[in-house]
Amino acid sequence: MMHMTLYWGIQVTLLLDSWKTDSLLSYLLTLLACFLFAAFYQYMEDRRIRLKASTSSSSSPPPPSPVNAPLLLPEPARGPTRLAGALLFGVNSAMGYLLMLAIMSFNGGVFLAIVLGLSLGYLLFRSGGSQEPEILLVDNNTCACA
């Protein structure tokens, strides 16, 4: 039977009928997998945002004077870069939805593992802690499935 409230047990069915935990070791390995997958999601989201920022900054012409500025937006990236951006978006969306479905197992340990993995991944990959300048985009969404 599927739980509809948060519970704290080591018996979890996660995403597939074949992914069931029945011992403490299998439960801890499942939590580790959830944690690492959530951190990897943040890494992939960082790669997607950096690709988007690099294509928009390298392909944009110098800004025209305010008097002669056209009312049209610059052309988006074309070809392989656009395809790579769409592919990364699709992969990130799938990963986000899988994380959401894992949380919907309603297991407290799975919930905490995913939230901690997302937090650590954000700290490592998206909070601007690297030597590179921070990329600021409005695209910074806190939802794991966006």
From TrEMBL:
Lipid bilayer topology: Multi-pass membrane protein
Designated name of the protein: Copper transport protein
Superkingdom of this protein's organism: Eukaryota
Keywords noted in UniProt: Copper, Copper transport, Ion transport, Membrane, Transmembrane, Transmembrane helix, Transport
InterPro entries: Cop_transporter
Molecular functions (GO terms): copper ion transmembrane transporter activity
Keyword hit for Membrane: yes
Family assignment from sequence similarity: Belongs to the copper transporter (Ctr) (TC 1.A.56) family. SLC31A subfamily.
Claim: Ligase is one of the keywords in the record: no
Localisation: Membrane
Organism: Linum tenue
